[in-house]
Amino acid sequence: MCASEHRLGIAQGTYLAIALADSTVDTGILTTDIVLQDSDWYGFELPIPLERNFTLLGQRSDADGARPALDFVTQKDKVRLGNFVTLTMRHIALVNFTGGNYNMAPGVDLLAHGLPGDRGMLVTTDCIGLLKLCYPADMQEQVVAITPRPSWMPGQQKIQSGLPQPGCVNVSDLDSAAAAAVPPDRRCWPQVGLFEDTALLAFDLDANQKQIYKGYATHIVETFYACAGVLTRSCVEELGTVGCITAMLRGAVPPVLAPPPEPSAFNQTTGGSDWATASSGLTRGSDGLRVVMSGDLENGPGGAAAAPAISVQLGACSPQLPQTMSYRAAAPSRQHVELHTDTITPLTPQRPEVVMDARPGHEVTLLPEVLGKGSYGRVVAGMYQGQPVAVKILLDSSLAAWGMSAQPKASTAAVGSETGEAAAGEPAAGDKEDGADAGERRLTENLGQEVAVLGRCRHRNVVTLLAACLEPPRYCLVMERMETSLDKLIYGRPGQLLPLDDVLTIALDVARGLEYLHPTIVHRDLKPGNVLIDNPNSPRLVAKLSDFGLSRLRSTAVPTANPEDGTPEYMAPEQYATGNFIITHKADVYSFGVLLWAMLSGCRPWKDMPMVAIASSVALYNKRPPLQAIPAKRLPHKLQRLIKACWDKDPLRRPAAADLVKELMLAKEQVGGWVGV
């Protein structure tokens, strides 16, 4: 059994305090609106020291998708972030989180000053923060743009201000009871904007309005803000930005309370942004999936065959299992709620938000950018529900239905790979039962297996499946889009090795993904091309496992007809054994050792060697990629010992994925840097 995350359902402020204080809890599920009170913290030594990463996750309303509201009532100094500790908040409406000037003193009053030298992190994702006062929209963008980011978080500040609010509710037209029932992210506000990617140091202000650093940074990602009032330009011109907002907070000057915005069409499927739709309450539905094709997927924008966007309905696509998974609210006791953490089996329900139908209401915009090609089809860029996606399309015989031409069968380029490796699950030349039909049959089976696995997975280090169609003529998977692949990070910069801290961060993410999958899901094709990366070269780097076409979902270990499936350079010795038909999750652990070696050395394992030579070296002569290829300063003893353990010829003696996580965390502490981020 793999290790479980420990989650606590939170329906009262007291349970939030319990979750933060309990070192075994790493995730709190906010199941309803909460107003924090001083009594919630009685019995705790304050501030509560948070020495581990913690996520507070809002359970969005089943009725309208509204985020639950967490009203801080300007509670102060209840929690202290430890060094290199990250507190993450997702899908929450944040109310009264600060009583001061947020533009001058960004942060959350609940968080106390860190200890000298500590550096913590507060991250918000898909939240909405309610601000008392904002600058006019154009000025708001200018103020954020010139605010420096923390030195360890390079990049540009990204913000959109003055977004339209279609479908919002004007509570001024309602009586007090009806107005109170409207969630914050469904109301009309004088101004709404989006912090796409904004990083700020957290400050307090002293009596003289001087900034005092609080020992942590705030990273605001895809988080909306809503303003209860807007500064007037005349006030800013007369008193300055700081003087005006200070005077208004003290009530000396009234702010502008803008009238509710007029509803406007902002949910365009062929371009533009969909953020205002989400912020004002139009939720992402689950009624089906259709495709909008834009431009020429063969030649790119402006190509010879470029055409206006057209809508294409997918075929009838039915989910394989009933979709019944839902969060459970916590009982009024100190009870851990384990969500999506049990071992995944065929009895695990598919995630309910994965769209498998072809009913109106959902569209995928296929953009004129091909991310990968193979003889099975294409992976193209797209937009789905307002977010960038990667759309995996099968097969050659049906590419015309997508407006694309078929590639010759000799093509061997893999999705997301620049190395010319065979695509996962692609039949080799001459290995066809009934010609092309047999090859297509196997590809569609692999696609179905990928849906069976990814449709049940919900983990930070496993790529997210958003929608799929498993019926002709338009087989496809719609998945979250990542920025790059590990293959490109390792081999795309000749002469440059991945920084050791990045190596350990990626290795930890991969190990955590395997820990979540094992033992019932075996990836069977773990390699750099199947590890996708977001936010490379930044403290927010995250790695996710992808391409589960060779994976199988089983309750127990069972025989396989194709133990040799995989990429030869990364295959375990038992996969080459002629009489072996049992492949367990320990094959992934062997592949992980090769992956770690590749990241540390910057070399390709068994370069230019044919499969037969690799098989004899690994299985017959017990050879492994040379550790001497890794510079000595990049191979501390703990990593060397770990790689050798992964490469043990006996699968039973290889470490479990949970052990990989523990050893890598120790190694990361040994070399320094962010642990667990």
Explained architecture:
Helix content is 21%, strand content 20%. It is globular, with a radius of gyration of 26 Å. The strands form 5 sheets. Strands 1, 2, 3, 5, 6, 8, 9, 10, 11, 12, 13 and 14 form a 12-stranded mixed beta sheet that branches. It has a 7-stranded mixed beta sheet with strand order 16-15-17-18-19-21-20, with helices on one face. Helix 8 (500-517) packs antiparallel against helix 9 (586-601), helix 8 runs antiparallel to helix 12 (657-671) and helix 9 (586-601) packs across helix 11 (637-646). It folds into 3 domains: 7-229 and 257-280, no CATH class; 290-316 and 358-480, Phosphorylase Kinase, domain 1 (2-Layer Sandwich), CATH 3.30.200; 484-671, Transferase(Phosphotransferase), domain 1, CATH 1.10.510.10. The protein has 12 helices and 26 strands. The chain has 677 residues and is of the alpha/beta class. Residues 413-428 have a biased composition (Low complexity). InterPro entries: Kinase-like_dom_sf (IPR011009), Prot_kinase_dom (IPR000719), Protein_kinase_ATP_BS (IPR017441), Ser/Thr_kinase_AS (IPR008271), Ser/Thr_Kinases-Pseudokinases (IPR051681). Residues 412-437 are annotated as: Disordered.
